[in-house]
């Protein structure tokens, strides 16, 4: 599982998003960088998991194996020696008892000395064997439990880290969800515009003239006369009206042919009579570069009219057969309509959920518009009456603004506004849009101020209506701004139109407090010269944490030579096992002072608790005090250890009292890159003297059992 997650993390790290367009919004940048954030998060979790698995070996398995080999194995060797010496002693004793009393005195004395020597060896072996058994029985109480305790500590440290990572991830998750929702809203808005564009293109196919631009381009067929007949050759033609230049690029080039584009200067254009040629949609042109006329064939009748209109053809210019509805104007009636709609919405619908997002009935919208813009009595409609619901009013207002002959923010400033929204410098965005607003015509700026003030009021009730500035930007971006040309490329800029409206709402007070000092927009900054001021959102980065050495022997260090040793001097942990990452989490201040001995964090005891426990141990050694507490088996427990167990079950709050020098009053001192956190182990009992092998209590109380003769040895041994 861990390997699969690591591979998944690597895949996310190397994944690259491809985007259409020349610039990304801030939300799109957040989305593009999200997989790298996910990858780092997964990598850190799996790194901790691998450390936990390694600790299972270093902190649990190896210490237990060492205890079995060094302690239990050594006891078995003592047992073998005891059995061997016992067999040798009893066999010699049997032989000694069978000696004849008639032997010489010297021989009997020598035999007695040998028996005494073997008896001494036997009792020494038995004493060492019994001592070793007792030592193993006593030391296993801590030598076996401590490795398990250390492993559980590493296990819960890993679990604690995942909880901390989750808490760090939640704010990032919320911000990313907001970016995803904004991007989804932009997508929905763009999709609607593209559907509308596709519908218009189906109704007027092959229209190749872009509104507001003098250049026309498209495919034309040219009649070419050869010795053996006439052929029609396909060209891609581009005509510039001001210079009267026609560029013709052949599309049916034969392999090996080096025919290039033809640049011609137009003299005249005349429609070809239908009965004069067997082809449809033809017209003739004359150029300075070629003698005679050139006959061209368009793709349709409408296409031929467009070409002839662009070339100032002599044939009468026909209007497009597409009937456009009468365009609305930004006049006094329009201002009256907008003010009435705003007043009605703010009076009875400002807290309506989804206001302006919910669409009204098309029939009711047309009924309201026809009644209000009736030439006989324009504006004679009471929107406060119950005849018109909020959906109808808001949809009518959007319909009116979208169908103006020119958008509120004008075609002329459209490109500059979009470029301002694409800037990576947030200050430039605001400054440029601020300046461009004051370049609008007076009535357009007045209408824009009226609408943006209304949208600000709507957003102030976002808790009830759920309409944020971003949502209002999605709705009114295509309404207040639109490109003059209907192209897919123009539709891809709708998300930046939305950003312009969002900036106007968020900074309404500054923008409409007055024109900027310089009414001209600041120069466009070069792309990505410096780092972005608005950086992508990231998961909160924590300071680097050290992986300190974790010793199983949880006693206070009294000397470097004492670390990692059992009471008999053998080593429990032979290697320095790395400990998982651990970030201290300090409990909140408690009223009335701190409890002595309560840990400040997992793995970091209160220094006062250490001093208290040290005093208790000193009193115990002097025999003048009772232990702080006893369990059922008589094991001494300290308040620090008991509270530490409770602390592990209860998640500690984030703010702290103090952890070490420089951290107090709940404000942790920020660590520098090289400053590593210190992990302190809870105090247990003081260590034994460095170079002394401890003697079990029962034997230590009777020194005669160690130095006495075999006859003085009690039967209990």
Automatic annotation (TrEMBL):
- Where along the sequence do coiled-coil regions lie? none
- GO cellular component assignments: actin cytoskeleton; cytoplasm; dendritic spine; terminal bouton
Cytoplasm recorded as keyword: yes
**Ranges of Basic and acidic residues compositional bias?**
592-613, 660-678
Composition bias, kind Low complexity: at what positions? 623-634
Q: Which SUPFAM superfamilies does the UniProt record give?
A: BAR/IMD domain-like (SSF103657), GTPase activation domain, GAP (SSF48350), PH domain-like (SSF50729)
Biological process according to GO: actin cytoskeleton organization; negative regulation of proteasomal protein catabolic process; nervous system development; regulation of endocytosis; regulation of synaptic transmission, glutamatergic; signal transduction; synaptic vesicle endocytosis
User: Known PROSITE patterns for this protein?
Assistant: PH_DOMAIN, RHOGAP
Molecular-function GO term, any one: GTPase activator activity
Q: Where is the Rho-GAP domain?
A: 328-512
Please give the InterPro entries that the UniProt record associates with this protein. AH/BAR_dom_sf, BAR_dom, GRAF_fam, PH-like_dom_sf, PH_domain, PH_GRAF, Rho_GTPase_activation_prot, RhoGAP_dom
Q: Where is each PH domain found?
A: 213-316
Q: Which keywords fit this entry according to its UniProt record?
A: Cell projection, Cytoplasm, Endocytosis, GTPase activation, Neurogenesis, Synapse
**Gene3D superfamilies xrefs:** Arfaptin homology (AH) domain/BAR domain (1.20.1270.60), Pleckstrin-homology domain (PH domain)/Phosphotyrosine-binding domain (PTB) (2.30.29.30), Rho GTPase activation protein (1.10.555.10)
- A Pfam family recorded for this sequence: BAR_3
Cellular location(s):
Cell projection, Dendrite; Cell projection, Dendritic spine; Cytoplasm; Presynapse
Q: Give start-end positions of Pro residues composition bias.
A: 683-697
Start and end residues of each stretch annotated as Disordered:
556-717
| Self-association state and partner proteins as the record states | Interacts with HOMER1. Interacts with AMPA receptor complexes. Interacts with SH3GL2 (endophilin-A1). Interacts (via C-terminus) with NR1D1.
Q: What is this protein called?
A: Oligophrenin-1
Q: Which gene encodes it?
A: Ophn1
């Amino acid at each position: 599982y861990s390997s699969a997650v690591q591979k998944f993390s690597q895949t996310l790290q190397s994944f690259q998003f491809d985007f259409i367009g020349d610039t990304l919004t801030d939300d799109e940048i957040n989305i593009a960088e999200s997989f790298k954030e996910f990858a780092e998060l997964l990598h850190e979790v799996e790194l901790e998991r691998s450390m936990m698995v390694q600790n299972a070996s270093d902190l649990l398995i190896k210490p237990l194996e060492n205890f079995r080999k060094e302690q239990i194995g050594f006891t078995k060797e003592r047992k073998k020696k005891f059995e061997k010496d016992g067999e040798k002693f009893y066999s010699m004793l049997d032989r000694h008892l069978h000696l004849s009393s008639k032997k010489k005195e010297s021989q009997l004395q020598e035999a007695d000395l040998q028996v005494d020597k073997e008896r001494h060896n036997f009792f020494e072996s038995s004493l060492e064997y019994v001592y070793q058994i007792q030592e193993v029985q006593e030391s296993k109480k801590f030598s076996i439990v401590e490795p398990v305790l250390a492993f559980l500590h590493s296990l819960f440290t890993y679990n604690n880290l995942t909880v901390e990572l989750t808490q760090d991830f939640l704010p990032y998750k919320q911000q990313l969800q907001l970016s995803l929702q904004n991007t989804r809203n932009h997508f929905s808005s763009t999709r609607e515009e593209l559907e509308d564009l596709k519908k218009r293109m189906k109704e007027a196919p092959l229209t190749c003239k872009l509104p507001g631009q003098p250049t026309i381009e498209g495919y034309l067929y040219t009649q070419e006369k050869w010795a053996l007949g006439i052929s029609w050759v396909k060209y891609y033609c581009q005509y510039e009206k001001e210079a009267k230049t026609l560029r013709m690029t052949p599309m049916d080039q034969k392999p090996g042919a080096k025919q290039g584009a033809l640049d011609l200067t137009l003299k005249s254009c005349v429609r070809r009579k239908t009965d004069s040629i067997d082809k449809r949609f033809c017209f003739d042109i004359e150029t300075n570069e070629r003698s005679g006329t050139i006959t061209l064939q368009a793709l349709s009748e409408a296409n031929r009219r467009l070409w002839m209109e662009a070339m100032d053809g002599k044939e009468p210019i026909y209007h497009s057969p597409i009937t456009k509805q009468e365009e609305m104007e930004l006049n006094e009636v329009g201002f009256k309509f907008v003010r009435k709609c705003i007043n009605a919405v703010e009076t009875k619908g400002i807290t309506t959920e989804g206001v302006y997002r919910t669409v009204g009935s098309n029939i009711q919208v047309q009924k309201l518009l026809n009644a209000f813009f009736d030439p006989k009595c324009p504006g004679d409609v009471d929107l406060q009456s119950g005849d018109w619901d909020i959906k109808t009013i808001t949809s009518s207002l959007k319909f009116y603004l979208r169908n103006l002959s020119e958008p509120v923010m004008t075609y002329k400033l459209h490109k500059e506004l979009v470029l301002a929204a694409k800037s990576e410098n947030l200050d430039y965005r605001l400054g440029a849009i601020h300046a461009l607003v004051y370049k609008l015509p007076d009535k357009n700026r007045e209408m824009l101020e009226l609408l943006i003030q209304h949208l600000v009021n709507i957003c102030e009730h976002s808790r009830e209506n759920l309409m944020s500035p971003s949502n209002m930007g999605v709705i009114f971006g295509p309404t207040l701004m639109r490109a003059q040309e209907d192209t897919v490329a123009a539709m891809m800029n709708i998300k930046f139109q939305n950003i312009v409206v969002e900036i106007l709402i968020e900074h309404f007070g500054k923008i409409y407090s007055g024109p900027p000092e310089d009414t001209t927009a600041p120069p466009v900054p070069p792309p990505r010269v410096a780092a972005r001021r608005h950086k992508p959102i990231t998961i909160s980065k924590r300071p680097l944490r050290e992986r300190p050495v974790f010793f199983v022997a949880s006693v206070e260090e009294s000397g470097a030579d004492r670390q990692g040793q059992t009471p008999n001097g053998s080593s429990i942990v032979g290697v320095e096992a790395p400990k998982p990452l651990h970030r201290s989490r300090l409990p909140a201040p408690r009223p009335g002072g701190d409890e002595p001995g309560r840990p400040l964090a997992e793995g970091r005891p209160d220094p006062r608790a250490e001093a208290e426990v040290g005093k208790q141990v000193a009193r115990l050694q002097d025999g003048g005090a009772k232990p702080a507490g006893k369990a059922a088996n008589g094991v001494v427990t300290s308040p620090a250890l008991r509270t530490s167990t409770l602390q592990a079950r209860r998640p500690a709050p984030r703010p702290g009292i103090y952890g070490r020098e420089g951290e107090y009053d709940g404000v942790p001192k920020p660590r520098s890159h090289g400053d590593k956190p210190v992990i302190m182990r809870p105090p247990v009992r003081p260590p034994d003297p460095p170079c002394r092998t401890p003697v079990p209590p029962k034997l230590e109380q009777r020194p005669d059992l160690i130095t006495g003769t075999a006859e003085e040895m009690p039967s209990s041994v």
